[in-house]
């Protein structure tokens, strides 16, 4: 099919070129020198009703038709968002068994968000964009920016954390860089897909203010600043209509208020109603009746909502072609930006640069949560033996978890990475410790691992304890995995606790060693009831192809950790707004009763101490903050204030610090969160070096969404700029007024 697609384009262009030579003689729709809108007008004028209908719905699991008669090629989509999904059979989810579709897995998006580094986001977008391009994909189904509302959401690992500002800053470079190479980003899942188990039937009850302030900003940034060419409607409903055909979300907000000119693509199987799909903003339908062609006699794609049923409504006179033409125009625009763009680079697959990008992003995203007595980094000069314990030290994590599952060229496990890094000089003793998920084949991709182990819990713990006793340092790799009800699409977690009796195992280990380092491999917060007995804790995420190398580099100190948490780790579930005041993961109406108080906003409002706060992350060096100074103590309409704070590396090695700016509105007529992130900067400092970090504060950072007037409002009065190393670690602040 790819070959056919290529030959159609080449054929059409060759024919034009050989008959006419000059591009000015090409019909407008094929003339690359013409403006895209002119080309679209011309293409539309030539298309029949059937051809128009054909391009607004799928023709296979991941592709939609072009206009073969006119030499307009098919459009190919791919998951996303951490690597390029293996080719699947025409009409099935399972892989097709190609041998040339192995990819690089980049760190999961939570890890990217934990870098707090927009350059990492740009590198990510560039690298994954090149992989998509090489594989001839036109639309990358990602990134995901749904807000982390509860640690139980099975899909949090695919998103960028709990804060709308952080997610907004991080999503923009990703989108821009993917699109630079002629591949569209399809930002997902718009909007409010914050839980999985009931994702098709849940209808979040969210007020306008919360919607605009918490759940929409990252999508808005992706569209307005990132210039996203497509967006994916979520599965859930909102105010009674499915998000894939939702008048408010799609027509009014996305296309109306934000002026989105791209195409709205349905999530796979997210379209439910033909009339709503026609009128409420959906442009391109995918995945409906996903049994597709396997049904037999007829082509099921013809009975998609935006296929024959739509055509019949036009033929019967119930609808004109007004809505159709808008959809076709948007889909053609998507095509002209991607599949019809003949001037895009080739891309590359599994290049050294991509592997290095995965490694670098991984090392920057790892978060050092606790490091008592500087037990980390592991000193290889003095350490003779390291016990490595836990299933996650060996388990491949790029397979499983739903649509983001990959088929990688290589994945370095933590155990392998460590072995390679420490070499012969240090003995490594491994014990499994627990048996969690032993699946090795996922959608016909075989990890090659055979993890079945019938030893009892008692035997596994006994072996781990024995190994721990014999080693100088104990590295425990546990956490979650990509199995159902862990970090996995389609299901939510059942609790905050670690699965597979890991707490019991960890407690047993703490009884025989005071040198236990817990590396949590997960995309979500977990409970740590044993925290006081474990001196070092590292958040290790899902780091993709280079996981083991990146972790080893940080654990032995080749790389100084510089990630910070993009979401709060609560002590217990009730310490989050969603589980205390709101409802989570429900069939039907689901009350987001906590409103704006998501993540650290809840901890601040209720004075609840987190286990680890949003923005928290340590380094092997230390940073001192001087006093913040402000250029003007007051700000006028249209103006800005500049705040400067000196930050010094007071330790003995180079490191990077993420300096965070929060704003507090001191005199508001409405409830406002105690403080909100409105700026951050990642600065690299040599030992002893001081740098001045500068933040510009504009009116936007002071505003709230006034749901009565339906606009953003900054009220005159006093504000405080709080600058610190984490949301619970403010080091300096200044007051200013808005006049
Ligand atoms: C997921 C999307 C994904 C699509 C295609 C859906 O189940 O929600 O994120 O892009 O499948 O695989």
Number of strands: 29
Mean pLDDT: 95
Provide the gyration radius in Å.
26 Å
User: Helical stretch count?
Assistant: 19
Tell me the strand percentage band.
15-25%
CATH class of the largest domain: Alpha Beta
- Spans of at least 5 consecutive residues whose pLDDT stays below 50 are 1-21, 291-297
How far apart the termini lie comes to 63 Å
Name given to the CATH architecture of the largest domain: Alpha-Beta Barrel
Molecular shape:
globular
Number of domains: 3
**What compounds are bound to the protein?**
beta-D-glucopyranose
CATH superfamily of the largest domain: Glycoside hydrolase, family 3, N-terminal domain
Major sheet summary line: 6 strands, mixed
For the largest sheet, list the strands in their spatial order: 1-2-3-4-6-9
Give the class from helix and strand content and strand pairing: alpha/beta
Classify the fold: give the CATH topology of the largest domain. Answer: TIM Barrel
Helical coverage, percent range? 25-40%
């Amino acid at each position: 099919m790819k070959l056919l697609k290529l030959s159609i384009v080449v054929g059409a262009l060759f024919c034009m070129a050989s008959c006419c030579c000059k591009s000015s003689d090409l019909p407008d729709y094929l003339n690359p020198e013409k403006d895209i809108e002119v080309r679209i007008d011309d293409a539309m004028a030539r298309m029949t009703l059937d051809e128009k209908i054909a391009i607004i719905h799928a023709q296979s699991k991941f592709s939609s038709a072009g206009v073969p008669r006119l030499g307009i090629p098919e459009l190919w989509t791919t998951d996303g968002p951490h690597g390029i999904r293996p080719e699947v059979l025409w009409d099935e989810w399972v892989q097709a068994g190609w041998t040339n579709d192995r990819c690089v897995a980049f760190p999961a998006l939570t890890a990217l968000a934990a870098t707090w580094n927009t350059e990492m986001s740009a590198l990510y977008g560039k690298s994954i964009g090149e992989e998509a391009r090489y594989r001839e994909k036109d639309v990358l189904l990602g990134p995901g920016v749904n807000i982390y509302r509860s640690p139980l959401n099975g899909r949090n690992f695919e998103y960028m954390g709990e804060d709308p500002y952080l997610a907004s800053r991080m999503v923009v470079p990703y989108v821009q860089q993917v699109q630079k190479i002629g591949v569209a980003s399809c930002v997902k899942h718009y909007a409010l897909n914050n839980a999985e188990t009931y994702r098709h039937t849940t209808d979040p009850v969210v007020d306008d203010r919360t919607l605009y302030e918490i759940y929409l900003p990252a999508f808005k940034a992706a569209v307005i600043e990132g210039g996203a060419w497509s967006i994916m409607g979520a599965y859930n409903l909102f105010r009674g209509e499915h998000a894939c055909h939702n008048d408010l979300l799609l027509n009014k907000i996305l296309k109306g208020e934000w002026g989105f000119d791209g195409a709205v693509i349905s999530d796979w199987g997210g379209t439910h109603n033909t009339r709503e799909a026609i009128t409420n903003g959906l442009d391109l339908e995918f995945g409906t009746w996903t049994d597709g062609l396997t049904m037999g006699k007829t082509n099921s794609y013809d009975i998609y909502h935006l296929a024959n049923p739509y055509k019949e409504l036009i033929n019967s006179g119930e609808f004109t072609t007004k809505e159709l033409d808008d959809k076709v125009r948007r889909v053609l625009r998507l095509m002209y930006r991607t599949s019809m763009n003949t001037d895009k680079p080739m891309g590359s697959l599994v290049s050294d640069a991509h592997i290095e990008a995965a490694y670098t992003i991984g090392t920057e995203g790892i978060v050092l949560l606790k490091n008592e007595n500087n037990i980390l980094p592991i000193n290889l000069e003095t350490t003779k033996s390291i016990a490595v314990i836990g299933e996650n030290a060996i388990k491949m994590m790029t397979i499983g978890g739903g649509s983001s599952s990959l088929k990688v060229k290589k994945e370095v496990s933590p155990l392998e990475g460590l072995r390679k890094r420490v070499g012969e000089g240090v003995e490594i003793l491994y014990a499994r410790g627990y048996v969690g998920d032993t699946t090795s084949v996922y959608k016909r991709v075989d990890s090659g691992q055979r993890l079945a182990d019938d030893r009892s819990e008692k035997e596994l713990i006994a072996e781990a304890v024995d190994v721990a006793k014999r080693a100088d340092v104990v590295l425990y790799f546990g956490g979650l995995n990509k199995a159902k009800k862990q970090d996995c699409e389609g299901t939510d977690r059942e609790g905050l606790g670690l699965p597979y009796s890991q707490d019991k195992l960890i407690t047993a280990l703490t009884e025989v060693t005071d040198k236990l380092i817990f590396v949590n491999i997960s995309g979500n917060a977990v409970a740590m009831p044993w925290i006081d007995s474990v001196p070092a804790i590292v958040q290790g995420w899902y780091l993709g192809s280079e996981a083991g190398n990146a972790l080893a580099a940080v654990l032995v100190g080749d790389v100084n950790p510089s990630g910070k948490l993009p979401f709060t780790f609560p002590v217990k579930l009730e310490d989050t707004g969603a589980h205390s005041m709101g409802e989570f993961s429900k069939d039907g109406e689901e009350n987001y009763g906590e409103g704006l108080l998501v993540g650290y906003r809840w901890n601040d409002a209720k004075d609840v101490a987190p286990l680890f706060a949003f923005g928290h992350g340590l380094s092997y060096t230390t940073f001192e903050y001087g006093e913040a100074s402000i250029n003007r103590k007051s700000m006028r309409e249209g103006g800005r204030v500049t705040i400067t704070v000196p930050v010094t590396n007071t330790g003995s090695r180079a490191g990077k610090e993420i300096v965070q700016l929060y704003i507090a509105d001191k005199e508001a007529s409405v409830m406002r969160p105690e403080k909100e992130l409105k700026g951050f900067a990642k600065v690299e400092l040599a030992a002893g070096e001081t740098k001045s970090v500068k933040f510009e504060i504009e009116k936007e950072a002071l505003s709230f969404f006034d749901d009565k007037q339906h606009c953003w409002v900054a009220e005159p009065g006093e504000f405080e700029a709080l600058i610190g190393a984490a949301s619970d670690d403010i080091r300096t602040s200044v007051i200013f007024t808005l006049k």
